Amino acid sequence: MSTAHPLQETSGFDPLRWRRDFPILSEKVHGKPLVYLDNAATSQKPRAVIDAVSRYYEHHNANVHRGVHRLSELATADYEGAREKVRAFINARSTKEVVYTRGTTEAINLVAQSFVRPMLKSGDEILLTQMEHHSNIVPWQLVAGLTGAVLKVVPITDTGELEPGAFERLLSPRTRIAVFGHVSNALGTINPVKEMTAQAHARGVLVLVDGAQAVPHMAVDVRDLDCDFYAFSGHKMFAPTGIGILYGKQALLEAMPPWQGGGEMIRIVRFDETTYNDLPHKFEAGTPDIGGAVGLGAAVDYLNQVGLAAIEAYEHGLLAYATDRIGSVKGVRLVGTARHKAGVVSFVMQGVHPHDLGTIVDQEGVAIRTGHHCAMPVMERFDLPATARASLAFYNTREDIDALVAALDKARGVLA
Amino acid sequence: MNDSLKDLYRDVIVDHNRAPRNFRKIPDADRCVEGFNPLCGDKLTVYLKLDGETLSDVSFEGSGCAISVASASLMTERLKGKTRAEAEQLFDTMHDLLTRADAPADAEDLGKLAALSGVREFPSRVKCASLCWHTLKGALQGDGAKPISTE
């Protein structure tokens, strides 16, 4: 087995070096060392992120953009400093294009409500794909329901790729926006987002990319992709929960009305008229998650230190190893075998329901996700009620995969 | 296998999962109600044939994890020939067994159903075991049209 995947050995990437930075990975579960393979649900947090958040609350905590006192200035510098780190991380032109949200879900809802809803007329179309997470389906159904617009769905193949040519074919004169995931959380498929964006733009259609599953695994350059909106969450890229990002092209964000009203997003409030703050604050009503933003900035620093190119190469080798090993377990069938994949191995086992698998491998200390992965249309496409899913991060090792495989054999022994 | 896992997947559970009893449709059922657990995708249909106050036949169909299939199988086996009042009473007993840590798991009237008490150690699995029972309650009380969800 060790000679079949030379990438891990030749890349010089040492997961154990980075693994030590994650305190929770030393925990025991049911008396066994924790094997954490549920990274697509949420990633673990390195000491650098945990410490940055603690330091903020211990030394700098105050409200931002408010007081003239020292702490408020420090907190504002932390908060806006993190925004600049995120800007550089995704190569946005300006911090005006980087809006803090609670996460990917809120970022998508913001675009649906503020940008898309006002322009929709009955019969207009929103183009999405069959592999979307519910958070990139339901916000569009909501605005479609209010306006009489309809959803058009790009079907997926048996391997879990977008049907060739279908995206371009479904772009129509009525398409108002095209929305799709960069990486599928249920199947691991990497979509050709740059090509899809170019195809949409050629027909004058704007694009939103759900990047939640991409940013922890590969370098993302929004200018190179040329997408109009890009949404992602902090907690899947080693930052705290409750913070996320909406990237949007400045001209689009400027033309959009505010989504939520409150403090911070205003310039002058009078009862007869209120003028709004500049970008990006126009979309950040109320006191934000300052500690979360600080943690996100620290996570960006940390990812830069590890190196996304090195992460991508290492995980590519680990995914090949995991695919090989899990796929070789007796009775196992892989779900999602696209040519280009990142981080995810979804599977089912003959005679053992995924839910039982999840419980049994948990008793061995192995954490995987079982269920529909908030992608019920994907389950329907493959005619499955649920799958088991192992999802990787750069701190995972071949030993983690081996532990899962041993636990799967045990599950088969119990039930199959 | 450790003790709590052994307690969850007892032989009787594994047996009823591998070979579920009364796993069939009743074509002329008086009641037929669907139950759904959206969290894990477990889906089953419970069929009742009534003869006055007596459940003359009980069956189920569907797909789900070992716990939900075994629970449904054990339920149908137990209920055949019982009265509606007895079935309602058994629902209450099972509800306590699955959710209350202090409910006796060795009561004589439980019989094989006591095997389901192992789920109490697995909070995320309680809904798997209780799905068929909630569906049964819906079938006993309703007119058979409304699907039952555990969420």
State which percent range the strand residues of chain B make up.
15-25%
User: What count of domains describes the coordinates of chain A?
Assistant: 2
Helix content of chain B: 25-40%
Given the C-alpha coordinates, what overall shape of chain B results?
Answer: globular
Structural shape of chain A: globular
- Please give the order of strands in the largest beta sheet of chain A: 4-10-9-8-7-5-6
Largest sheet features of chain A: 7 strands, mixed
Going by CATH, the homologous superfamily of the largest domain in chain A would be Type I PLP-dependent aspartate aminotransferase-like (Major domain)
What percent strand of chain A?
15-25%
Structural class of chain B: alpha+beta
Low-confidence stretches of chain B: none
Second CATH tier, the architecture of chain B: Alpha-Beta Complex
Secondary structure class of chain A reads alpha/beta
**Helical amount among residues of chain A, as a percent range?**
25-40%
The CA-CA distance between the termini of chain A, in Å, is 26 Å
Verbal overview:
The complex is a heterodimer of chains A (416) and B (151). With 416 residues, chain A is an alpha/beta fold. Helix content of chain A is 39%, strand content 17%. Chain A has helices spanning 6-11, 15-19, 47-60, 70-90, 104-116, 138-147, 166-170, 193-202, 222-225, 250-255, 290-306, 308-327, 354-362, 376-381, 398-415; strands at 28-29, 32-33, 35-36, 98-101, 125-129, 150-154, 175-181, 206-210, 229-233, 244-248, 266-269, 274-276, 332-335, 344-349, 366-367, 369-371, 387-391. Chain A has a 7-stranded mixed β-sheet, sandwiched between helices. A 4-stranded antiparallel β-sheet of chain A has the order 13-14-17-16, covered by helices on one side. Chain A has a two-stranded antiparallel ribbon with strand order 1-2. Chain A is globular and about 70 Å long. Mean pLDDT of chain A is 95; it is low at 1-10. Chain B has helices at residues 3-8, 11-18, 66-79, 84-99, 126-141; strands at residues 31-37, 42-51, 54-63, 148-149. The longest helix of chain B has 16 residues, at 84-99. With 151 residues, chain B is an alpha+beta fold. Chain B is globular, with a radius of gyration of 14 Å. At the A-B interface, helix 13 and helix 15 of A face helix 1 and helix 2 of B.
